[in-house]
Each structure stands twice: as structure tokens, then as C-alpha cells.
Amino acid sequence: MTKGNYINIALNEGNTPIYRFTQIKWLLDSIMQKNNTLLSPRKWNDPFENALAREIRLSRPDGSTSPHPLRNRVYGQCWTLTPETDAFWRMYAPHGDGVRLRSTVRKVYQSLERSQDLHAISCFIGRVQYKTEKEITASWANQQFVGQGTRGHVETLLLKRMEFQPESEVRLLYLDPHNTDYGDVFSYKIKPSSMILILEVTLDPRMTDSLFDTYKSILLSAGFAGEINKSTLYRAPKITLTI
Q1: Domain map of the chain by residue range?
Q2: CA dist 124 → 58, 156, 204 (Å)
Q3: Selected residue with higher pLDDT from 134 and 195
Q4: How many whole angstroms separate alpha carbon 178 and alpha carbon 197?
Q5: Weakest mean pLDDT among 57-61, 131-135, 216-220
Q6: Taking the CB of residue 6, how many other CB atoms lie within 10 A of it?
Q7: Of 22, 48, 33, whose CA–CA distance to 158 is shortest?
Q8: How far apart are CA 141 and CA 106, in angstroms?
Q9: 68-72, 94-98, 142-146 — which is least confidently predicted?
């Protein structure tokens, strides 16, 4: 890993905790398959996401245009610097079957880096920068990213509008340099040296204690070796009043 693979993140921030909210079924599948899965930005909801790949076309000398050559070759996974919010639980697990994963910037990046031979030009992790719509469109207009290869393209995925700032996102990004389109999903195997990718699993605060115990047993049986607990976000405080 070099400084160029960390974007908007200093090298000494490698131990910074980051969190990912998802559904328990996806975590169990990842553990059983020993892999990690990234999604194409085509699956992301915000219309401003991956605008370079979706909208910007390159001009040819004859006047014709073509899609950006990297448009279908980048994949990402979203993490956050924010430990917990009510909104995260309800957004990512509306049915109360959520899980929060805790790792670090370095562990998440290295899990991808160690799976790829050309990691120096294909694997990145970066902190999202939040800007006004005007600032973002101005960046696209001067095409500051177009000539910067794979790094320049993944940087377009680290710009979001100010309205999304509470998300405090950090993104793991992969761009295949061999012009390969994997469809909507790119998965990579987690090598044994990277298996301790997840340090802690926190289950949904809306989950019953009996269901929590069941999932904890399943996680342990599946080989998860990290800490397992349940969020106390909605736990009523125990207050004793002396009269």
C-alpha cells in the first residue's frame, strides 16, 4: 500500500475504526463463503453518484462520442466513521434484522489489496468529501479527473452533496485495470492473513434477546472469532430515585 491508495485519508489513520451497517443474512453469507462483496455504483440510489461514468462522454476527432472507458469497471463498499445512529439501523435494516460491523481503515483496505496482484492501480480506500452541487458539477465540467487513470476515476466516487454529510462515509473501491465488467457485483476471497477483517459484530437493538442468542450461536459455529454483542441504543435506563 502507498499513500496513493489512501484518498483523503492519512497513512497514520490506518487504525481508525470504521463501521458498516447491513443485514445479518449478508454477514452470514460472507463468513460462510469467506469473501467480501462490492457493488457497482449502478446500484446506488443517489443520481449524483458515479456521474462521470453515467453521464460524461468522451469526444472523438470525428465528432462522435463514447462512454467513459472505466464506466463499468469500478465497484465500491460503503463504511462510516459514525459508530451508530437510529437512522442507520432503520435505513439498512428496516425489518429489525440488522448488524453493525466494526473494523479499521487498514484491515478493510488490506483485505482487498492482498487479493489482487495489481493492487497498486486497482485498490483504494477513501473518505468521502461533501460539497455543494455547484462545486461538484464544476469539478466535472473542468474534467479534472479524466486524465488521472484509475485513481482519478475512483475519486469521482468520493464526492457527495452536502445534504449527505451526516453519513461520514469511507469507501472501499476496486477498479479492474483489465477492462472487465463483472456486472453489478464483484466478490473477492478473503485470504487467511486477512480473515480477522471484522473485529466486532453488533446486532440490531430491536432484536429480541432469544433471537440475539440464536444468531450469536450461528456466528460462532460459522467460525467468527470477533466480539459479538447487541446494541443498547433502545435499552431503557435503570433509574433509582431516592425519596
Answers
A1: 3-230
A2: 24, 12, 30
A3: 134
A4: 27
A5: 57-61
A6: 19
A7: 48
A8: 33
A9: 142-146
Distance of CA 209 to the CA centre of its chain: 29
DSSP 58-106: EEPTTS-EEE-TTTTSEEEEEEES----HHHHHHH-TTS-EEEEEEEHH
pLDDT, position 174: 94
Q: Which residues contact 173 (CB under 8 A, 6 or more apart)?
A: 38, 74, 75, 76, 123, 124, 125, 126, 154, 157
Backbone phi, psi, residue 24, to 5°: -60, -35
Question: All 3 cell numbers of residue 221?
Answer: 459455529
The residue type at 138: A
Give me Rg for the CA atoms of the chain. Answer: 20
Span 135-194, pLDDT tens digits: 887 877 665 555 566 787 788 889 899 999 999 999 999 998 787 778 889 999 987 555
